[in-house]
Write a structure and sequence with these properties.
Blueprint: E1 8-15, H1 24-39, E2 42-49, H2 50-53, E3 64-67, H3 81-98, E4 106-110, H4 112-121, E5 125-141, H5 143-146, E6 158-169, H6 173-179, E7 182-187, E8 199-203, E9 208-211, H7 219-226, H8 229-239, H9 241-252, H10 257-277
Helix pairs in contact: 7-9, 8-9
């Protein structure tokens, strides 16, 4: 059987970067291309410039959705045209998944998308960090995270790329319970810093999962960023020179972000593709 004889799997990548240069979009495409080749799938993807061009996909045309990170405040865009279209798309996907349609739509939300979705559901407080978090940092799983299929194979803690000026803190347990959502991961405990730990991953439902960190990031992209004087200064000011050098070492370690990149989104794709094949 040739690839074109196999059932078509269509992925929509929702680009929330608003035109700024980034490594995230390349990371998503690399993962999808590797996953397609490894599993011999008839898989294609299309990118939608949501913020800059106000483009969103038709929900009937795609099976799987990946929503990216992006710059700026997750609060200030409330009511903008692109955000209305974005949340309208999410509502349509939810309605579809609640319907009798056996083919469900799976979605993965990253960083800025995570913050927007947490705002949509009222899952916690969103605010600016005291200083930007950037680097290869440990992420701790909750009990729910330890048994979530998308986290399967990851250590506790595992390492991921964190890059954010904003955060979601103080999980609203009442809302989590009401909506049947699960907090899957939190940031590193800092006993010497009197600040709340940020939420780092949430499962919204059986088909929607999200991370505050960047599971699409790879060592090459991070090395490029960390080599820039501005980023080096930022990391050293926040974490110290020793931590900066540790980050560079982590990039060489196949058990750190390379492993996370090769595990988490592929696990998500496994779940989505398997559910399509079960029909």
């Amino acid at each position: 059987m040739t690839l074109t004889d196999k059932p078509e799997i269509k992925v929509a990548i929702l680009d929330l970067y608003d035109g700024i240069a980034n490594e995230g979009m390349r990371g998503f495409q690399d993962i999808l291309n590797r996953y397609k080749a490894k599993n011999q799938l008839n898989l294609s993807f299309e990118i939608f410039d949501v913020r800059r061009k106000c483009l969103v996909p038709n929900t009937d045309d795609f099976d799987i959705y990946i929503s990216s990170g992006g710059p700026g405040s997750p609060l200030d865009t409330e009511g903008t045209e692109w955000e209305k279209k974005y949340f309208n798309l999410i509502d349509k996907l939810e309605d579809h998944n609640l319907s009798n349609n056996s083919q469900k739509k799976h979605a993965f939300f990253v960083c800025h998308s995570f913050q927007l979705m947490c705002r949509k559901y009222g899952l916690g407080d969103i605010n600016t960090r005291r200083s930007t978090s950037f680097g290869v940092l440990p992420v701790h799983q909750t009990k729910a995270g330890l048994i979530d299929p998308v986290f399967e194979g990851l250590a506790d803690p595992f390492y991921a790329v964190d890059s954010r000026s904003w955060q979601v803190i103080n999980p609203n347990e009442k809302r989590f319970t009401e909506l049947g959502m699960q907090l899957l991961a939190i940031e590193k405990e800092r006993p010497y810093v009197d600040l709340p730990r940020a939420m780092m991953a949430v499962r919204f439902n059986e088909y929607f999962i999200s991370t505050q960190f960047h599971p699409e990031a790879d060592a090459a992209g991070m090395q490029l960023l960390l080599s820039k004087d501005e980023k080096k200064k930022e990391v050293v000011n926040e974490h110290g020179l020793d931590k900066y050098n540790d980050m560079l070492e982590h990039l060489e370690d196949p058990d750190k972000i390379t492993y996370t990149q090769n595990t988490m989104i592929p696990n998500f794709l496994d779940q989505a593709v398997l559910s399509m094949q079960e029909i």
